[in-house]
Design a protein that fits this description.
- By secondary structure, the protein is of the alpha+beta class.
- It has 11 helices and 13 strands.
- The strands form 4 sheets. Strands 1, 2, 5, 6, 7, 8 and 9 form a 7-stranded mixed sheet that branches. The protein has a two-stranded antiparallel sheet with strand order 3-4.
- Helix 5 runs antiparallel to helix 6.
Length: about 300
């Protein structure tokens, strides 16, 4: 299993409806626009070449407008195919590489600002071809980057069941011989994520001692309360994962909303509501803009990280 990052622009709707990615083999521009007999200037780019390297079962993260909006799994090896009729950019070659994909849309897109940017800048960029983030913080302008296994696992950890579903699909493709691969299949990826979660029991008990009840609903029954990280577990270092100030004790529906970035909190404790949450859902869940919870100063850096991740 290999991991890739793809930047999608105007072709987003086509990608979602058609379940494919495509890039030209090369760019072709006349040497002299006024005299075409002088021939074409040919250019190749690693971010186009990467498309041709994708194998069945590889996982691709889709970036649209600085948000990871989907996780995709290649359902077959990349193959040569002509340019889609809708792609009319005249400087692209007619021939290219195509990947058929299964797409898993994230209910709450992940902002690439904040943690994701910092992680690539500090750890993953040097292993990415091309580098995903430029020195000015902008995402590279090309199409597809090859990223490291560590970067892929990190991103998968932020996508919860969506990432798990993608990994299971990848596993099925490997087990059925859908593609040729030399890298470990998804079972190894899931195990890496699972092993890193050791310590959750201690974290929960510390939160029960501190909070006693859900600060939003007032529910006190421990059997109905969930230990919820503020700065997500996948983004935290070993100390942050066990830091009691990096957590709230929430009722199940509040935990779900917070974990998905559908709600957040300001440093003053005022609730922030994601526009993706409908008024009907707000009413049914008894979530109102008037909700405010008690915030300690030590919670604030974690709340900043949560807001940056989900763009709240």
């Amino acid at each position: 299993m290999s991991f890739y990052w793809v930047n999608i622009g105007l072709s987003y709707d086509e990608v979602i409806k058609g379940n494919f990615l495509w890039a030209p083999l090369q760019g072709e521009k006349p040497i002299d626009e006024k005299d075409l007999s002088k021939g074409m200037r040919i250019r190749r780019y690693d971010y186009w070449d990467n498309v041709g390297l994708v194998k069945a079962g590889d996982i691709i993260f889709g970036n649209v407008d600085r948000k990871i909006r989907f996780v995709a799994v290649a359902i077959a090896d990349a193959f040569h195919d002509s340019r889609p009729k809708t792609r009319t950019f005249k400087q692209w070659g007619f021939n290219g590489n195509k990947i058929r994909i299964e797409i898993f849309l994230l209910p709450t897109p992940l902002s690439v600002d904040g943690y994701i940017h910092d992680a690539f800048r500090d750890r993953y960029n040097k292993f990415s071809i091309p580098t995903v983030f430029k020195s000015n913080g902008h995402v590279f302008q090309g199409y597809m980057a090859s990223i490291s296994d560590a970067a892929g696992i990190d991103l998968l950890s932020m996508t919860d069941e969506i990432g798990a579903a993608a990994v299971e699909t990848s596993d099925r493709l490997h087990s059925s011989g859908g593609g040729k691969t030399k890298k470990p299949a998804g079972a190894t990826t899931r195990q890496a994520i699972r092993e890193a979660r050791i310590g959750q029991g201690y974290f929960r008990q510390e939160l029960i001692t501190m909070w006693r009840a859900c600060p939003v609903t007032g529910v006190r029954n421990p059997n109905l309360l969930i230990a919820s990280h503020i700065k997500p577990w996948a983004l935290s270092d070993d100390n942050e994962r066990l830091d009691v100030f990096n957590g709230f004790l929430f009722s199940p529906h509040v935990d779900r909303l917070f974990d998905k970035g559908l709600i957040g909190f300001s440093n003053a404790g005022n609730i922030l509501i994601n526009p993706l949450l409908s008024s009907n859902d707000l009413k049914a869940l008894n979530i109102t803009p008037a909700i405010s919870i008690s915030i300690k100063q030590q919670n604030m850096p974690y709340l900043v990280a949560h807001r940056l991740l989900f763009g709240l």
